[in-house]
Amino acid sequence: MRKCFSTCARQLSHENPLVSLVSSHFHSNTHYRLVAPKHHPGPVLNPPNPRNANKYSKGLPRKGAPPTLPRMQRGLPQKRKLRNVAHTIAVSSAKGGVGKSTLAVNLALSFSRHGLRTGILDTDIFGPSVPTLLGLSDVSEPKLTGQNMLVPLTSYGLRSMSMGYLLPNEAAPVAWRGLMVMKALQQLLHEVDWSPGLDVLVLDMPPGTGDVQLTIGQQVELDGAVIVSTPQDIALKDAVKGVGMFRKMNIDVLGMVQNMSVFVCPNCQTETKIFAHSHDDVGGLGGAEAKATDLGVDFLGDVPLDPNICADADRGMPTVVAEEASGKNVNSQYYERIAEKVAQKIGLGWA
């Protein structure tokens, strides 16, 4: 693991040459230290001249046009498919706390249960959730292939990779600057060995519409994005931003999912939409369903508000797996219906 992220330190040395990074992410006695270069004079705008000594000792000239510095012209990176992955979809919310990671894992497990070779990639560098959701919080770090590729871990028949697997424990913070985060993301995207191949890879995106989302959208050929929201306006406002971001990057929005939308009575199985927004319904719809209609994207379905879903996630046995083991099919049917719609949209068969 030391070799896997060793180049991160070099990337940061020019940004703050005095910063000292002590890393215990891979081995408790491994230390990385960023030090200032011995000689770093900075740019010289004009050749030194004794007569101009006072002028240059006070900094840049205060008058006249600023100097023109040469710039390297770069275009956007070329999009490419991830190695050994046939289809890639992003699960995004643009807002934290709406159950996006729980939905992403259950969506991936639903694909797997229907004969699709499936993986999930946790792209949230600062707050990875996949290890907890899959019961892999205490496992040893991933192995490396002969080509220094990370080998995914497997749980419940689902292959996964996460920054959380590279940390010494769940409480360890990832206090990194942008360059380090981008380097880690590049390695998670392009240096994971998914061989012999996946039919579909689910990307669990971090909250927001920032660097990670833009990097993935510009570098990876995505088959589409699933937007997760709750019925509340405060969540829907950010979901709208997420839809707009993917559209600006010419990425197909497969649809919206409304999480925590339906309370299912444990006795009679009656569904009650306790967060319904009757004041702004569109054709009798409410919440994310109405917003999806307004935005012109498909509504993929509801997921119930059920404490069992939370309990399943916390104990590392997602609902699709937990209900499969108990012989019940109360909440997993919602995830499977959403997964079927997504599979059909990206051209995958559904057994």
How does this structure look, described?
This protein is of the alpha/beta class and 351 residues long. It has a single domain, classed as P-loop containing nucleotide triphosphate hydrolases (Rossmann fold), CATH 3.40.50. Helices cover 30% and strands 15% of the residues. The protein is built from eleven helices and nine strands. The protein has helices spanning 7-12, 53-57, 100-113, 130-133, 178-190, 211-219, 233-248, 287-295, 307-314, 319-326, 332-345; strands spanning 85-92, 118-122, 153-155, 158-162, 198-204, 224-229, 253-264, 271-272, 299-304. Strands 1, 2, 3, 4, 5, 6, 7, 8 and 9 form a nine-stranded mixed beta sheet that branches. Helix 7 links the parallel strand 6 and strand 7. Helix 3 (100-113) packs across helix 11 and helix 5 (178-190) packs parallel to helix 6. The longest helix has 16 residues, at 233-248. Residues 37-77 are annotated as: Disordered. InterPro entries: Mrp/NBP35_ATP-bd, NUBPL-like, P-loop_NTPase, YlxH/NBP35. Pfam families: ParA.
